[in-house]
TrEMBL record, chains A, B:
<dbReference type="GO" id="GO:0016628">
    <property type="term" value="F:oxidoreductase activity, acting on the CH-CH group of donors, NAD or NADP as acceptor"/>
</dbReference>
<dbReference type="InterPro" id="IPR011032">
    <property type="entry name" value="GroES-like_sf"/>
</dbReference>
<dbReference type="InterPro" id="IPR013149">
    <property type="entry name" value="ADH-like_C"/>
</dbReference>
<dbReference type="InterPro" id="IPR045010">
    <property type="entry name" value="MDR_fam"/>
</dbReference>
<protein>
    <submittedName>
        <fullName>NADP-dependent oxidoreductase</fullName>
    </submittedName>
</protein>
<keyword id="KW-0560">Oxidoreductase</keyword>
<dbReference type="InterPro" id="IPR041694">
    <property type="entry name" value="ADH_N_2"/>
</dbReference>
<dbReference type="Pfam" id="PF16884">
    <property type="entry name" value="ADH_N_2"/>
</dbReference>
<dbReference type="Pfam" id="PF00107">
    <property type="entry name" value="ADH_zinc_N"/>
</dbReference>
<dbReference type="InterPro" id="IPR020843">
    <property type="entry name" value="ER"/>
</dbReference>
<feature type="domain" description="Enoyl reductase (ER)">
    <location>
        <begin position="22"/>
        <end position="342"/>
    </location>
</feature>
<dbReference type="InterPro" id="IPR036291">
    <property type="entry name" value="NAD(P)-bd_dom_sf"/>
</dbReference>
Length: 347, 347
């Protein structure tokens, strides 16, 4: 790869009510960006791929603007400063920035966050020490308010957020049950991460179990009901969890990946208002940027847990920016094993 | 009416996935109850009719046991102690008790609450100073946490709970918008209760408006979105409210009367998980008996508001226990004007 060229991934087409395909993206090789006054030029090391990006591909109303057709796909990366026209950054600094899906980016210096390379490996700033880890931490502790002995169910349990949720819940003395989409993932969260139990929401043929079977399976693993359901997925697993919610249970709506390919349609299905009333349960939406004031608390706490080996974190690294579309499409259907990253540069 | 006879209303048949009809009840005249050791004999003055009783007619799982076929319909009443075999009650005491739908009842003394006849008229202990008023008070203030200048939308706005919700929200400095099922009710909450605005969710022909029309009408009356939606009904109005929920909005699930005739079926419809997430909104079920520790605070506060004329309360009184089934059926379809009561005895 020449130092004089930059490879980027653009949004070519919006997938409407369908899963994204590779032709929705365009990989383009072009000139290096030139940092303007106050900007820094960053060479990315790792790009983060996250489910929320499916929302950015859609023109449906959301909490953030969609990516324009022909625009660089939105995304956060960790990289090294190549050159700086901002007093706060020096060449060689390790930084976190919303660069989009590209190898190099010129970013305003005030939107760049320096990170401490001694605290953890660089990729962790996109995962366990970054947005997904902080999502798990703030949503579980501040919306969920877990108490020792309570039962926490987490969906997408082996994903970037789910694996952290379960381990923090264990630290807090909860009984933790994970839901995942393969026997391998189920074994991972139970045997490697120390979840008390886990179950596969899919049948051996890969199709989802039916609602009755799944809710009975959850009931058997959560005999006293679910005190906290950490919902990363919506849809079927949400329904089976709600059928088992305990009195005064909390449902944290953190993601709805099961309906991300139908964002332009109404989500029609079972409604649980009567259940919320009967169980006096609370369902609440979560976005991590409302908790920005907790960043330092989170970083310090999580770094300590990592150091002490109380939290482990699995990453799934695709090689090269060109691999990003395929890795992203795979992640949306659960093909990843842990936090999905793309290595965009070697050191 | 002979002093030696007692007229009661029994559950004859469970309505399943349909509205109750008069033949689901049986009015029976029989012997006076005999108070046993520790019991008091009460002559009821007013019986309360409340939407939750539709749930008690159903065998579907809920927070309380269903009424048995052939059993006296469950309900709370205010009445006068006739004779007492419990040291805490004297003949002539004005009391509140779960007597069921009947003129006389023998009730364990420890389950009887003496009420203060000087604080308010007896019927108010079933309404504005009773369970519906306390529901409005605790749910709005402790789940809703209203702030001055915020917009509160309340459904079934002229009902026993709704009229109190709106007036408390006004006392707290909120902008209050009511939803009701007739132009007369709309005029009542706007012109008599001082709501800032109100709208009829029905078309002139009595059929409900469609979702788009209703949500646009709400949007026009709540231009900054809804900070608190006090939901007494579920269904269509819930959907139109959720479409307009503001960032960090709260949805208090207090009743689901729109689906009470389909309790045995799944409530299938639009789901708002994505909206909860995007708006970081909170939806929470409410039952007043979780707030029993707030009874004294509520009674004192509400009595003061009544004395000062800051809260007014409309009651709709049906005459005679025999009228209870028809009044109850009417209430479920919105025929009542204000809190529905049955006068079961004169003084």
């Amino acid at each position: 790869m020449s130092e004089r060229q930059n490879t980027r991934v653009l949004l070519a087409e919006r997938p409407v009510n369908r899963a994204p395909v590779e032709s929705d993206f365009r990989v383009e090789r072009g000139a290096m960006p030139e940092p303007g006054e106050g900007e820094v030029l960053i060479r990315n090391l790792f790009l983060s791929l996250d489910p929320y990006m499916r929302g950015r591909m859609s023109a449906a109303k959301s909490y953030a603007e969609p990516v324009a057709i022909g625009g660089v796909m939105a995304g956060e990366a960790v990289g090294r400063v190549v050159s700086s026209r901002h007093p706060g950054c020096q060449p060689g600094d390790l930084v976190l920035a919303h660069t989009g899906w590209q190898e190099y980016a010129a970013v305003p210096g005030e939107r760049v966050t320096k990170v401490d390379p001694d605290l953890a490996q660089p990729s962790h700033y996109l995962g366990v020490l970054g947005m997904p880890g902080m999502t798990a931490y703030c949503a579980l502790l501040y919306l969920g308010e877990p108490q020792p002995g309570q039962t926490v169910l987490v969906s997408a349990a082996s994903g970037a957020v789910g694996q952290v949720v379960g381990q923090i819940a264990k630290i807090r003395g909860c009984r933790v049950v994970g839901v995942a989409g393969s026997d391998e993932k189920v074994a991972y969260v139970r045997d490697e991460l120390g979840f008390d139990a886990a179950l596969n929401y899919k049948k051996p043929d890969g199709s989802p179990k039916d609602f009755e079977a799944l809710s009975q399976e959850i009931a058997a693993l959560c005999p006293d009901g679910i005190n906290i359901y950490f919902d990363n997925v919506g849809g079927l697993v949400h329904d089976a969890a709600l059928a088992n919610i305990a009195q005064f249970g909390r449902i944290i709506v953190c993601g709805t990946i099961s309906v991300y390919n139908e964002l332009e349609k109404q989500d029609i299905g079972r409604r649980w208002m009567r259940q919320l009333l009967v169980k006096r349960a609370r369902m609440e939406g979560f976005l991590v940027f409302d908790h920005a004031h907790r960043t330092e608390e989170f970083r310090q706490t999580m770094a300590a847990w990592l150091r002490e080996g109380r939290i482990v974190f699995r990453e799934d690294v695709a090689e090269g920016i060109e691999a990003a579309p395929r890795a992203f499409i795979g992640m949306l259907s659960g093909a990843n094993r842990g936090k999905q990253l793309v290595r965009t540069g070697q050191e």
